[in-house]
Design goal:
2 domains; Gyrase A, domain 2; six-stranded antiparallel sheet; five-stranded antiparallel sheet; alpha+beta; Alpha-Beta Plaits; globular; about 180 residues
Length: about 180
């Protein structure tokens, strides 16, 4: 019997490139949701997590984005797939729960001065750099899709459910055609 092969739904997509806008699929990442009561977490973990709403922190080899008062998305960069070693230890001690979301979400990196205009066609959020900048993240609806936006120093990472990722990619492609050539 053949082994089950897991494949990212957008693995075969070529980048979307328009004047002022570029979107490309982020290579497979290790993603996990950490759930814990922030008050009962040890100080060493609280220092690693954004405790304010809609914030994300870059730890060079991994990022963490605020999802809810007791939940964070742990994101390993494609170059380093070892998120902070303390989290599994505290999960084992029942101080936190970690759920692997690596195959549940697909990441898309969107960049360029026209990125707020393209994504803004599907969401009411003000995505201008003065309102939504690096270190901020948010969950929102975009063209009928539930997405997480995480603004890094170089781009906005868009996380969408894997089952909807192809449809979202098609919407994103169509939305980019509204930009002037």
């Amino acid at each position: 019997m053949d082994r089950l092969t897991l494949r990212q739904p957008l693995a075969d997509k070529t980048p979307i490139v328009r004047r002022g806008f570029r979107a490309q699929v982020i290579p497979h990442q290790s993603l996990a949701e950490l759930r814990a009561d922030p008050v009962s977490l040890p100080q060493q973990l609280r220092d690693l997590l954004p405790l304010s709403a809609n914030r994300s922190i870059d730890h060079r080899c991994w990022r963490v984005a605020w999802l809810r008062p007791d939940g964070w998305l742990l994101i390993d960069t494609p170059q380093d797939t070892e998120r902070h070693a303390s989290f599994p230890v505290f999960a084992g001690a029942k101080a936190a729960r970690i759920t692997d979301l690596s195959h549940a979400l697909v990441g898309i990196a969107a960049a360029g001065y026209a990125m707020p205009r393209v994504i803004g066609q599907g969401t009411p959020l003000d995505l201008r750099p003065t309102k939504f900048g690096p270190g901020q993240c948010t969950r929102t609806w975009c063209a009928g899709f539930s997405i997480l936006l995480d603004h890094t120093d170089t781009h906005v990472s868009i996380y969408v459910e894997a089952s909807w990722s192809t449809a979202f990619w098609e919407w994103l492609t169509d939305a980019s055609y509204t930009l002037p050539q």
